[in-house]
Design brief:
By secondary structure, this protein is mainly β. It has a single domain, classed as Glucose Permease (Domain IIA), CATH 2.70.70.10. The chain contains 1 helix and 13 strands; from the N terminus they run βββββββββββββα. A hairpin with a 2-residue loop joins strand 3 and strand 4 (48-49).
């Protein structure tokens, strides 16, 4: 069963990143502060641009849906390990949660979730350092085909920084 945490939300500020329909965004980790965030979007990881932010948290820390939307794909990949792809309500943006330890009980493809629902738990699966559990969090703007595996990467750091600063 999914549990709910009601986060502080505000405009994601993604308009500056070129996204016209940015929904409000919540915090993926309860109690997260601005000082917990480091912009790793433009860093090179494993030979490619990271295009995400890593949020260091203890293994087993609950991960919350940042927007209302649909779980479109639960996926196990070599680099990302246990992952979730979530679309926003309008199917404009895709939110990617990776290196998870496990999914929340009952989570499945096609499930509707609300901002604040616990959807998973922090881990170090995939190519993550086992000694540094973290949430790999990314946002992409979907193209007209609405494929979860395609999209234009948007730096989540500014939106998360604003959300954490308001918490």
């Amino acid at each position: 069963m999914l549990t709910r945490w009601i986060p502080m939300v505000l405009s994601a500020g993604l308009l500056a990143q070129g996204t016209s329909n940015a929904p409000p965004i919540g915090l993926p980790i309860a109690g997260m502060k601005a000082t917990d965030l480091h912009d790793t979007f433009d860093e090179t990881h494993s030979g490619h641009k990271h295009e995400a932010i890593d949020i260091i948290e203890p293994k087993g820390t609950p991960v919350h849906a940042v927007v209302d939307g649909t779980i479109v794909k639960l996926f196990l990949s070599k680099p990302g390990g246990i992952t979730i792809y979530q679309y926003d309500r309008d199917r404009v943006l895709c939110y990617y949660y990776a290196h998870l330890d496990r999914y929340a009980d009952g989570l499945k493809d096609g499930m509707q979730v609300s901002r604040g629902d616990v959807i998973a738990y922090v881990g170090s699966t995939g190519n993550a350092d086992p000694g540094t559990p973290h949430l790999h969090f990314a946002i992409s703007e979907l193209g007209p085909e609405k494929h979860w595996w395609q999209g234009v990467a948007i730096n989540p750091y500014p939106a998360l920084l604003r959300a954490a600063g308001q918490h």
